[in-house]
Task: structure prediction
Amino acid sequence: MDADTNDWRELREFAGVDLCKSYVLSWEHVSSTLMIDIDLCLTPSHPFFEEPRPAERQCIRPAMLEFPYCTALAGHDDGLAIVAAGLGVGRIDGLRRVGDGHYEIQGAFGTVAIDGERPILRLKGPVG
Result:
């Protein structure tokens, strides 16, 4: 990777998670923010990690991945709510920063280019 490219593992927002064992449930663009609803895999180093139950293989928690001030999505800079609603779901293969304010997320849904601010990862609801 060149100096202007970072894999998700190098971004502080993703400490203690494994995106490659996580799953996109839906996409939404509201008030200039791209919101990706995900089932997020937490690793033992995450503060909210819990040992998986016997029927589970990983610690999975509902989460939201947000890109504030998203100005372009999948090559479009207009009608982003419609573009987001039409994106597929599935397992995440990777996420990388490809330049200042430019990101790509890859997975079962293909590769989606995102222009926006640095991502924010939030766990949803009460944990435990």
